[in-house]
Amino acid sequence: MRATEASLPMLNTTDSPQEGEMGKKLEVKCHRIISSESPAKLYCCCGVITVLTAAVVALSAALSVRKTEQISIKKTYTPCPRNWIGVGNKCFYFSEYSSNWTSSQDSCMEQEAQLARIDNQEELNFLRRYKGIFDHWIGLHRESSEYPWKWTDNTEYNNSVPIQGVENYAYLNTHGLNSARVYVNRRWICSKLNSYSLHCQTPFSPF
Which neighbouring-strand residues pair with 90? Predict the structure, then answer.
């Protein structure tokens, strides 16, 4: 009987595993948990990165479209055409050639303008400074000395600046406004409302 008992291995009186075996089992479980969760975390990160990348691309595209629209608007409503000069709400064109009053008016109309109309002192001062040494036709005319001066749109001139001479077509010289016969060749000045004013339908102010 004692020999039989001696041949049997010694058993732990507690039914729980030894501490070393317990630690190994817990370590194995932790590795399993980490191994099972890591791919999920990786996929999640990839998903977040993909979403953020798509958002950045969409935002860049939206900004590009907005920039294109702004450029388009700027092109559409450029204040004055090329070779024209803006003053106040109007654009002025100074010719480099000479012609009579009628042909000068025709040239302005081809550019959707009229021979220059001067509506305030600022415009008059500018035109006198910018025209240089040359005399330029402007849009004032009359049928005879018995009739009032009118602009090309038939609006009467209020004579705020006297027009010298006895002829029926006005031009701008260094000293102010003067008159000459229609067939005299001079340079000319065209004027029209700028794009912003046309868009807003800003009327002329009388001068």
Answer: 87, 193
10-29 confidence digits (pLDDT tens): 444 444 445 455 555 545 55
What is the rounded distance in angstroms from the CA atom of residue 195 to the CA atom of residue 90?
Answer: 9
Write down which residue in 76, 99, 131 finishes a domain: 76
87 phi, psi to nearest 5 deg: -140, 120
Whole-angstrom distance, CA of residue 70 vs CA of residue 77 = 11
**Residue (of 188, 190, 142) closest to 166 by Cα position:** 142
Residues 106 and 143 in one domain: yes
What is the distance of C-alpha 62 from the center of its chain? Answer: 17
Residue 206 has pLDDT above 50, yes or no: no
User: 42 and 102, same structural domain?
Assistant: no
Number of neighbouring beta carbons within 10 Å of residue 126? 16
Q: Which residues neighbour 168 within 8 Å (Cβ) at sequence distance 6 or greater?
A: 141, 142, 143, 144, 145, 179, 181, 182
63 and 141 within one domain = no
Least-confidence region, from 82-91, 157-166, 194-203 = 194-203
